[in-house]
Design goal:
The complex is a heterodimer of chains A (138) and B (143). With 138 residues, chain A is an alpha+beta fold. Chain A contains three helices and seven strands. Chain B has a two-stranded antiparallel ribbon. In chain B, helix 3 packs across helix 4. Classes of the chains: A alpha+beta (138), B alpha+beta (143).
Chain lengths: 138, 143
């Protein structure tokens, strides 16, 4: 059942993508499809050379579940989180450091993170209670 | 065409039967079209067992690709940012894609029919000959 779908476009920039929890048989090509349990897209105004950094940021988003792009550190803003691949700096600082080497300063624009089943209410199954109920039946 | 309609009807009946069940497992699929364009979808199943099958993953990947085509058809690819794609519209779009794939196939089959019929008649005739030959061989030798 198709539950949700989103697309991310930065025509003159880059979209970093990462899929976590891909099964060995799942397609995982850098172009085309990839299937797993967590999928992240992150769009940036950046040069093509920054693709590896964007992929790292997508991996960071998969692991750290930021709630917003920018804002107060305690609100779970991506730019203020310690970077997954170098936790002595924030994501913002990692982007700034990358801009020194390149020609264009990479600027994050948006991200989207999908995890299988998030937000779906599951019926809680208490197996012990079910067994007890069965035993107490005459 | 009645075959298509009938199978769709049966599919809808099956879907209605399992509508109340919670599908909280499944897979997410990603499809990259270009360096600056990509699409993600979540496709649910009732069990993680089903979600782990190769068919399910291929289905999820196919839906992600269709969603990318849908986004392009809607013209949202020129606007920077995340676009949540309307699920009902996307489903309708995928139904259209499927019909486009089916129509040429059905037309091909219809054009093949006369040839198939001729083949079937030829096979029938040849079987009849063999039967007669067999009869002669088994029969009493001519006096």
């Amino acid at each position: 059942m198709l539950r949700r779908a989103a697309s991310l476009h930065v025509p003159d920039g880059l979209v970093g993508a990462y899929v976590h929890g891909a099964a060995p048989t799942a397609p995982t090509g850098s172009d085309g499809p990839a299937v797993g349990r967590i999928a992240v897209l992150v769009g940036a105004d950046a040069d093509p050379a920054k693709a590896p950094l964007l992929r790292q940021i997508a991996q960071h988003i998969a692991g750290f579940r930021p709630t917003a792009l920018d804002g107060a550190p305690e609100s779970g803003a991506l730019l203020e989180q310690p970077f997954l691949f170098n936790d002595t700096v924030t994501v913002r600082a990692a982007l700034a450091a990358a801009s020194i080497e390149g020609t264009r300063q990479p600027r994050l624009l948006a991200f989207e993170r999908y995890e299988v089943g998030e937000g779906i209410e599951r019926q809680a199954i208490d197996f012990a209670a079910e067994v007890n109920a069965q035993l107490q039946r005459p | 065409m009645w075959l298509t309609e009938r199978s769709e009807e049966l599919g809808r009946a099956k879907a209605a039967k399992v509508e109340g069940r919670t599908a909280a497992n499944g897979a997410v699929a990603l499809f990259r079209v270009a360096p600056g364009h990509a699409c993600i979808v979540e496709v649910n199943s009732e069990t993680d067992f089903a979600a782990g099958s190769a068919q399910f993953m291929a289905l999820a990947a196919g839906i992600a690709e269709a969603a990318a085509k849908y986004a392009a058809a809607q013209g949202v690819t020129s606007t920077v940012g995340v676009h949540a794609l309307p699920i009902e519209d996307l489903r309708g779009y995928m139904g259209g894609l499927r019909q486009q794939c089916q129509r040429p196939l059905l037309a091909d089959m219809r054009s093949l029919l006369p040839a198939l019929m001729r083949n079937a008649q030829a096979v029938d005739a040849s079987a009849e000959r063999h039967r007669r030959v067999g009869h002669h061989q088994r029969g009493r030798p001519p006096r």
